[in-house]
Structure formats: structure tokens, C-alpha cells
Amino acid sequence: MRRAIVFVACAVVTAALAAPAQAGPSSSKTQGQTTEYVVLYKDGVSLEKAHSAVKAAGGTIVKENAAVGVATVRSSSTAFAVDARKQSAVDGVARNRAVGEAPKLARAAVNKSQAVEKEGRHGSRGSTSSHKPSAEPLANLQWDMKQIHATAGGSYKKEPGDHRVLVGVIDTGIDGTHPDIAPNFNRALSRNFTTDIPVDANGTEVDGPCEHPSCVDPVDEDDNEHGTHVASTIGAPLNGLGIAGVAPDVSLVNVRAGQDSGYFFLQPVVDALTYSGDHGIDVVNMSFYTDPWLFNCTNNPADSPENQAEQRTVIQASERALAYAHRHGVTLVSAAGNGATDYTKTITDASSPDYPSVPGEAPYSRTIPPSCVSEPSEGQNVIAVSALGISTRKSYYSDYGNGYVAVSAPGGDSYDTADNKADVTHAILAAYPKSLAVARGELNPDGTPNVPYVVRSCKGSTCGYYQYLQGTSMASPHATGVVALIVSRYGSRDRVHGGLTLSPARAQSILEGTATEHACPTPRAFTYTRQVLQSDGTYLTVTTTHTCEGSKSSNGFYGHGIIDALGAVSH
To answer: Which residue ranges does the record annotate as region Disordered (predicted)?
Structure first.
């Protein structure tokens, strides 16, 4: 599992994000390169005291989320983190990441027309699907939707979703111009909380040169592909083009917290969650883990005191933001991860920290006990989703664990075949930005794809592109889509924001209660065999064994069962 959880086969800022001016670092401190930090205020402390504490430690606040007491701070004092932690108004400090700067000669941006979107805050219930639902042109390739009964003859007929239901996609962005997303894309509510990062502390390219002078991408742009795939799985419309999502009539809101490169840093994630809570988002999809630590440990002996303190801050800040969103009516859905590990056992992680906050920082091996936490999937009130293949077996890469996984959903498994050789069509097909297909040379001069993992669908002169990906990143949006259907079906009028609302506890109860129970395999120690194609044309046999624990109604592979879109809206 790495950053965005996929395995390949801001025009307006709220008052809570205002940045109060602060004095620079004290001249008595050793001055070094300016570094960015995330500072967590003590719970309940006044902003005045918090600001004074940051100033006293030699920091300058550049962004603040007052709702949960988190601030982005810059300082050139080499002692800032130590001095800030000594302040009574500060709960924790974590290094953040480099600040994006537009290069002197920025590359030309891909020209994208602005999509016309619907507001998603008016209209009658189900008004966008007065017609009888019919299968989309690529429906025969969507084995995943058949697995959970999200089809023209299944859940679409009973409940296709309601445009007043808002689904937040906390990801790398959404291509809001994609013709199989644009009808359901809510540009007015969408926000981008990230700034492109050209290079890291070691000078290695991260996002690359900024496409825009501000280094902040528009809210209808996705230069990664991940967020667009996720969004269309949730809510691609029934429009006679390409595919349909699990909930084809809901509104999709880009609540971007992921970099172009796929990193997800603490401050943008916190901001995306609190924004979702403040603006009536009904459910968010989180197919990522918060960098730079795959697992955050409070007192791992392999970590330095500085790194231990940093990880404690990540946990505290993440949990505050998750709790804030949940308290404000947001159902939280997350991918379980692609590490092929049991989260309830002691494991080894050699991937963290995966981003150098200071020059020379590199990953190192750590023993990870179950007490360590991966955010957000192990956060409070978060629904963790494992991935399944076409046969309904747990995907070979999917993380698992009895008590960790809440539900399971199709995420793809290209090796889930009779001969154990990869078949790309056993991954998940969803929307793909045309700009990326062009840039990567995946299209012929006439616009047809020249690679097997990209598919085109046209309606008249309008064409959309789609690609096969697999991962728990692909499983999570299926569950998010079912939650959106649940809110559409059973929600009541949101008196604060004007849409529909349903308590997260009720939504989760219906999701889990209507899932199809699936027992552990027999034997419980299941061996995956993969015939992996080598560069010389031969195949290498790879085997791994995962053990499923628990009962039929709740176990480490399937959680409470395989989600069921039709069952959820027939509750």
C-alpha cells in the first residue's frame, strides 16, 4: 500500500481557515532553512494563547483550522519543534512538507474546458431519474456492479440516488469535465486544499513543475487519475455513455487533499474533513493513508523521540478531524489498504517515512504492533473496506483483520483466474481523464486506445475514456456509493444545509446489516497462487498465504459481509 490506495494491473476559503499574521522567529534561535510544520493546539485553548505560543517558539502561522485547532506553521528556527512542544497551549508538532513554488518557466497547462454542473441543493427527490433505468454501453464489463446488484434491474430500479445527497471524494481531484462525471459534478461546493510540490527536501521530483502560476489546481482537474476513477465508481450517471456508478443520481464533490503525485499530507486531510462537516457532505470516501507514516506509533523504540512525537500529533489531529466530521453528519468510509497484511497482528513496515521532510530522511524498517494506527482507516467511526476479486475471494493484495475490516466490496484481482495468470478485465473499470491518456501516449491518432487497460465509449461526437485499476481504493468507493443510496432512501431533510441527511451511525448500521454474510474460506489459511509474467516471457510462480479469523457474520476477510446495493435500499 502506498499513498493513494490503488494497485495498478480553492477559490473560496472558510473563516475557519483564515491565516492570522504572526511575527517571525526569534533572532536568538539558530536560523536554518525554513521548514513547515503542523501544530496541534491543546483542546479548548483560546486562539489568542495558541497564537502567542507559536510566536514564542519562533513560528509564523500560514493557515489555521480553528474548528479542530490545527495550524500550518513555518519557521526557520532549528529548535522550533522542541520549543513549541514546551508551550502549554500546544499539544503536538509534526513536520509537514515543502511549499510549492511555480517554476520560472512552468510547462504549459493542459487546456480543459469548464464543465457545467448542477448545484445539487434543489430539485425534487429522484428528479434526475424519472426515466426507466437501462444498462449503460459498458455495463457488461462492470462485473463489480453485478456483484453488489448495482444494475439496471437491481438497485438502479429501486433507488438510483438523490441529487441532494452530497458525496465528498477526498482524493487527488476529480476531472469534472469527463462526460461521464460532469452531469453529477458539483463544482460550486468543490475545493482543493493542496498546493503542488515540485520537489522534495532531497530535490527529487514530487508533483513536478506547477501547471498553474499559483501551484493550486482548479477544482475540476485531476492530474493523477486516482480521484477520477474513484468518483465515477461512486456516481457516474445513467446517461447512455460508458459506465454507471453505484449511485448514478447523487452529487459528487471534489474535496481534494491528495497531491498530483498521490501523497496525502496531514493539514489538507484535516481541512478536507472539517470542510465536509461544515458544508453538509453526507459521506466521504478516503482511499489513502496520511503520509509520511503508513503506521503511526506513539512509542515505538525504533523511532527517535522526534518521530514518536510527530506520529502522536498525526494521530491526535486526524482523530479530531474525523470526530468533527462524524459529529457533523458525515459517514466516513476508507480503503483497508494494499499491504496484504493482517492489521490485528504484529507486522514489519519498511516503507515509512515515505516522504523526506528534511534532507537525507529515508524509510527504515520497524516492527509494528497492533497498537500502532494507520490513519484514517483505523480511525474512530471509520468504515474500513477490504477488496474482493470477481470470484468474491479476498483480493491477494488486500489488507485484512478480524475487527478491522467492516465490510468488503469489489476492488479487483487480476489474478483471480482459472490459470492464475493476470487478466486486466478482472480489475475495476472506471473513468479516466483523456488528458492523461493523451500525455501517456495511450491513444492512436484517431482517438482509439492502443493499450488493453484503456477503453473508449462514444455517444455521438462525445467520447469518454475509462481504465482498469485494482486496489482497496477501488473497493472503498463501492461502499461509499451504497451509503449514498442509503442516505437517498432513508434520509430526511437537512434543515441546516438544505439537502438530505442521515446519521452516520444509522447509515453504517444499514450498510453492515444488509451486507451478504460470507464465511472464511476452507481451510482458513488461504493460499494465493499467481503466475507472474517476466520480461523474458516466462512465468514466475508466487504464493502467499493469508489466514481468515472470525465467524460467518464477522471475520477478517469480509467483515460483516459483501455490500449489497439492492439489499440496502430494500431494507
So the answer is: 109-135
pLDDT band for position 3 (50/70/90)? low
User: How many residues are listed for the chain in this entry?
Assistant: 571
Residue 101 confidence (pLDDT):
39
Q: How far is CA 13 from CA 115, 160, 222, 385, 403, in A?
A: 21, 32, 20, 32, 38
CA separation for the pair 147, 412 (Å, rounded) = 11
Looking up cell 456492479 gives 145
CA distance 330 to 277: 6
The number of helix segments (H) and strand segments (E) in the chain equals 11, 20
How are beta strands 283-286 and 166-170 bridged, if at all?
A: parallel
For residue 391, the tally of other CB atoms under 10 A from its CB is 11
Task: Please tell me the distance from the alpha carbon of residue 468 to that of residue 67, in angstroms, as a whole number.
Answer: 39
Dihedral in degrees, nearest 10, Cα atoms 351, 357, 358, 359: 60
Distances (CA, A) of 24 to 42, 55, 389: 22, 7, 54
- Distance, in Å, from the CA atom of 107 to the CA atom of 116, rounded to the nearest integer, reads 27
Q: Has residue 15 got a pLDDT over 70?
A: no
Contact 166, 282 (CB under 8 A): yes
d(CA 55, CA 61): 8
The residues carrying an active-site annotation are 171, 226, 473
pLDDT of residue 102: 35
* Bridge pairing between strands 70-77 and 166-170: unpaired
Give the full edge-to-edge strand order of the sheet including 70-77.
60-65, 70-77, 31-41, 90-95
What confidence tens digit (pLDDT) does each residue in 483-520 have? 999 999 999 999 999 999 999 999 999 999 999 999 99
pLDDT tens digits along 399-422: 999 999 999 999 999 999 999 999
Cite the beta strand spans of 66-119 per DSSP E.
70-77, 90-95
What's the start-to-end Cα distance of the chain, in Å?
35
pLDDT exceeds 50 at position 107: no
Confidence (pTM): 0.90
Q: pLDDT tens digits for 240-283?
A: 999 999 999 999 999 999 999 999 999 999 999 999 999 999 99
Copy the grid coordinates of residue 417: 483466474
pLDDT digits (tens, 9 = 90+) for 267-278: 999 999 999 999
CA pair distance 232, 234, nearest whole angstrom: 5
> What is the average pLDDT score of the chain?
89
List, in order of start, the domains of the chain with CATH numbers: 1-123+160-195+205-401+408-509 (3.40.50.200)
Closest by CA position to 179, among listed 87, 109, 270, 117: 117
Q: What is the three-state SS of 4-54? A: ECCECCCCCCCHHHCCCCCCCCCCCCCEEEEEEEEEEECCCCCHHHHHHHH
Q: Where are the alpha helices (DSSP H) in 32-113?
A: 47-56, 80-85
